Amino acid sequence: MSQIGEKAVEQKSNIVTRIDLLKAWWKWCLAVEVPVSFDRMQALAFGYSLNKVLRKVYKDNPEELKEAMKRHTSMFNTNCDWGSLIHGIIISLEEQRALGNENITPEIIQSLKIGLMGPLAGIGDSVDQGIVATIPLAIFVPMALNGSVIAAFVPALIYLAWSYGYSWFLMKKGYSLGKNAVLEILHSGKIKKVIDIASIVGLFMIGCLSSSFVAFKTAAVFNAGTSSEVVLQDILDGMLPKILPFALVMGMYLYITKKGPKYLRIIVYTMLLALALTFFGII
Amino acid sequence: MVIKAVLVGLLYWIAMGRANYFFSFAFRKPVVLGVFIGLVFGDVKTGLIYGATIQLMYMGGIEAGGNIPSDQGLAACIAIPAAIINSLDPAASVAIAVPFGVLGVLINNLRRTINSFYNTKADSFVEKGEYDKLSTFSFILPWLTNGVLYFTPVFIATLFGPSVVQAFIKVIPEWFMNGLANAGGMLPALGFALTLVVMGRKQYIPFFVLGFFFHAIAGFSMLTGAVIALCIALIVSMFKQNEEGELT
After folding, report:
1. All structural domains of chain A with their residue ranges
2. What is the ipTM, given to two decimal places?
3. Closest Cβ–Cβ partner in B20, B137, B197 for A256
4. Which residues of B touch A126 (CB under 8 A)?
C-alpha cells in the first residue's frame, strides 16, 4: 500500500511526461547531424531536442531558463544512438533542479554531459557502424550483386530497427535512472562483458571483411633467366595469402594512429599509388 | 531529363541532408540508392548492380565523430546515372565513383563551416529569450541550407554529367581507368582500418589478424565467419571471467 502511495507522490512531482520525452527523442533523431559545425559540433541539435522540455520545467523562472538554454547550446558531440542516454539523464536532472533540488548544480549537469559524450561516442560508433551496419551489408550485398532487390534493403532495415529501438530505450532508461544511470549502465559488469564480446566479434569480422573486400594484387612477372617466368603474386601467396591487402589495412591503421585522422590525404595517396602501380603494370 | 536530374538531386539530399539521421544513414548506402536511381531511370535491376558494385568499395563506411572519410552518397548519385545512361561496365562505374566520393568530403566541410553562422545566431536568440526562433535556426534553416548545398551539384551533374563522362571516357587512357578501378579495390582498406581505430582496443588486434587469415585461407561466407567469431568471443570471455573470479 505504502509503495503505491509513494508512487502517486512521485508521479505528481513529475513535470515531464512520456510524450514530452518522446518528442525530445524524436527531435534529437531528426536534427542530430543537421546543424553540425566545426566549432560546436551537435550543440544546436542538443538544444533543439531539449527546447520545449526546458521551457516546460522552467516555466516560472526565466533566468534559470536562459541559463539552461545556454548550457545546452554549448559544444556537444556524441553518437546519435547511444548518446540519447545523455538526453534522458539531463532532462531528469534539469527537472529535479527546476523542482528545487539545490544539490544539482549547473556544474554537475555540464560535467555529466561532457564526461559522457566521449565514452558513449566511442562505444556507439564502433558497435553501430562497425557491427550493426557493416556485417549485414557483408552478408547481403553479394546477394544484391546477383540481382536481389530485397537483399539491398535488408541491411538498412536491420540498422533502422536497432538504432530507433535502442536509442529510445536508452532515452527512457536515462530519464528514469537519472544520474545513477551512468553508474548503472557504464559500470555494470554485464554491459562490460557484452561490449567485450561484441568487440571481439567485430574485430574478427573486420578481419574477414578486409580479406574479402580489399582487392590488391600484383600482376608483376619476372623473367628468371632461361624461358621460365616467375609470377610475383604466386610467391607472395606461398609466403602468406593476401599479404598485400593485409599490409594495406595495417599500414592505414598505423598511419591513422600515428598521424591522426587525415582521411583525405590517405585517399589521395592511395589513388596516386594505384594509378602509378597500374601505369607501370605492377598491379 | 530535367525531371530525372531533380529526382536524383532530391535523393542525394535525403541521403546526405541528414534529417532523421538513422534513416539517412541507411538510405545513403550505394546499394540502396542504386535501386532508387534505377527506378528514376526506369531500370531497377541495372541500378541495383551498379549500386551493389560501388557498395563493395564502401563496406566499412564508418563515420567516426561525424567525419566522413569518403562520401558514398555522392559517389553513388553521380556514378550510377552516368553508368546507366552510357551502359558502362560495373568496374568503370567504380572508377567514376572514387573521385566523387572524395569531393563529397569537401561539401561536408563546407556545410560544417557554414553552420557556424547558425551558432552565432543561436547565441543572440538565447540572449533575447526568443526560443522559437532558436528552434528554427537549429533545424529547419540548416536543413534547407543543406538542401541547396547537396541538391545543386548532383542536379547539375545528372543533367550534364553523363554526356561529359562519355566524352571523358573516350579521351582518357585505359591505364588511367584501370588505375582508378584498382584504387576502388584498395580503398575499402581505409574503412576497415578506421573501424579498427574507432574500436580502440589495441590488445584485441590479434582477433582482427585471426579473422583476416582464417578467411584468406578458407574463404567461407560472412555468416560462417560470424558464427566462428561469436564462438571465439564466448570462449575468450569464459576464460576472462575465471581470471576475474580469481582476483576477487
Report:
1. 2-208, 216-279
2. 0.82
3. B197
4. 195, 198-200
